[in-house]
Amino acid sequence: MFLRILIGALLLLHGAIHAVLAVVPNPNAAEPVVATFFSGFAGSWLTSRLSGTTLKTIAIALAVVAAVGFLLAGLAMFDRLVPHTWWRTLAIVSSVVSLLLCLLFWNTYLIAGVVVALGVVVVLGILRWPAEAILGY
C-alpha cells in the first residue's frame, strides 16, 4: 500500500511539473511573457524549419499532454477518475511524450527529464515492475 501511495504521489508531482513547464515563461527568451519554457531552447534543426508560434504550440501541447497523462496515472493509482488498471499505460505513454518534448526542445537542463522518462519506460514497460499484487490490488 505504501508503494502505491508513493508512486501515485510521484506521478501526480511529475504531472504538476509538466503543467508548470507549459506556462512558465523562459527568462532567456526575447519576449519572456509570451514564450514557454521550451521556446528558446529548440535546437537549430527545429528552429530553422518552424516558426516561433508553431514551436510554442508544439511545446505547450506536448507539455499539457504529458501533464494530463501523468496526473491521470497518479489518480488511477488511487482509483480516482480512471480505473487503476490504466495507471501503467498512462505513465508509459506520458513518459514517451515527455521524452519527445525533452528531445525536441533539448538543453542540458532537461537531462533529468530524459533520465526520468527513460527510467519510467524501462521500469514500468520493460521490467513490468511493480506487480499489481505488490501495489495491493
Comma- or semicolon-separated keywords:
single chain; mainly alpha; 66% helix; 137 residues
Strand content: under 5%
**Which structural class do the helices and strands define?**
mainly alpha
Backbone CA Rg: 16 Å
Taken together, the total number of domains comes to 1
Average of per-residue pLDDT values? 86
Profile the largest sheet. Answer: none
Low-confidence stretches: none
Q: Rough shape? A: elongated
Helix percent reads 55-70%
Helix-strand topology string: HHHHHH
- Contiguous helical run count: 6
Could you tell me how far the N terminus lies from the C terminus, measured between alpha carbons in angstroms? 9 Å
Q: Tell me the total number of β-strands.
A: 0
SSE topology:
Blueprint: H1 2-23, H2 44-47, H3 52-77, H4 87-104, H5 111-126, H6 132-135
Helix pairs in contact: 1-3, 3-4, 4-5
Describe the structure.
It is a single chain. By secondary structure, the chain is mostly helical. It has one domain (2-135). The protein is 66% helix and 0% strand. It has helices spanning 2-23, 44-47, 52-77, 87-104, 111-126, 132-135. The longest helix is centred in the middle third of the chain and has 26 residues, at 52-77. The radius of gyration is 16 Å and the shape is elongated. 36% of the residues are buried. The mean pLDDT is 86.
